[in-house]
Amino acid sequence: MKAILLEEFNKDLKVTNIQEPNLSDEGVIVKIKANGICRSDWHIWKGHWKGISTPLVMGHEFTGIVEAVGSNVKKFKKGDRVIIPFSLSCGHCEYCLDGSGNVCTERQSAGITFNGGYGEFAHVPLADFNLAYLPEEIDFVSGAAMGCRFATSFHGIVNQAKVGAGEWVVVSGCGGVGLSALQFSVAMGANVICVDIDDRKLNLAKDLGASFVINSKESNVVDQIKEITNGGADVTIDALGNSEIVMNSLNSLKKKGRHLQLGIAPDNVNFDFQVRTLVNFEHQIIGSRGMPPQKFPYMLNMVKSNRLKPKDLVTKTVSPDQVNDVLQGMGSFDNLGITVLEW
């Protein structure tokens, strides 16, 4: 099969032919139709994260059609339209059993721990637990925008931070994660302030429903947020993974406010915050990783009913030979919205 192969970190990916994946008894083979190109892919490509081996076929947010089914799979059949969640689980640890498979003790991710969606076919292990149906009403490109960034934001906004109607939410970093967080916050009835250094991204955020936007190169972010919200935000979100953003976010919270950390930083980046303020103001710092596969239907139903529009975040589709250019652009934050690889 054709695949886009990472052979060395920080070197161009190679479009080549490799062996098709093997089918396990509990797994399925998916013929890939579309795959979102994520900032996590950029981190992997740059070698920022430990424990990742090459050669590797990256890609962890993809959609497709079931091509082959293992002998023990009960829920899926050949021809089913599917979306592959970013967080894949073992199905039997204490976290999987309580519905929190996104923090499974043996978690895996396609395109990170095994070959993923930068190829024509991919194997999905333990399909009955890890795979989700893609409704006919949702096209493959829209679905490919949802497996990681969209799902991560949904879980963070709805299940973790529990954003409510009328609250002030600040989203810092208007890439795919940030714009997804904006959509969900607006859908929950919140007032959203978006922060970025790129006016193109801020203009897109306004088009997607942001009440206010702030260019952090031109303004004091904390002062502006406190002025707009009359004292501080209910929820702040770092959608990038940046120490300056985290500090600005924490300093922008009202008393009893919540900070939601969605962005992932390189392994050598640490965040400093004042414990005294955390205690005295009863701030909460909330982490969020992916989303359990079992909660995907709730998100997909909101898309089917047109309350959420992931396609609005997709600004570009590319072919395999254009993926290197997309990754290069991520290093300078040139990319706008979500870019999707189509097979």
Automatic annotation (TrEMBL):
Keyword field contains Nucleus:
no
Keyword Oxidoreductase recorded: yes
List the InterPro entries.
Answer: ADH-like_C, ADH-like_N, ADH_Zn_CS, ER, GroES-like_sf, NAD(P)-bd_dom_sf, Zn_alcohol_dh
* PANTHER family for this protein: ALCOHOL DEHYDROGENASE-RELATED, L-THREONINE 3-DEHYDROGENASE
Keywords assigned: Metal-binding, Oxidoreductase, Zinc
What organism is recorded for this protein?
Salicibibacter kimchii
- Record domain Enoyl reductase (ER): where: 8-341
What protein does this entry describe?
A: Alcohol dehydrogenase
User: What superkingdom does the record give?
Assistant: Bacteria
Single GO MF annotation: zinc ion binding
Q: Which SMART domains match?
A: PKS_ER
Q: Which cofactor does it need?
A: Zn(2+)
Family, as annotated: Belongs to the zinc-containing alcohol dehydrogenase family.
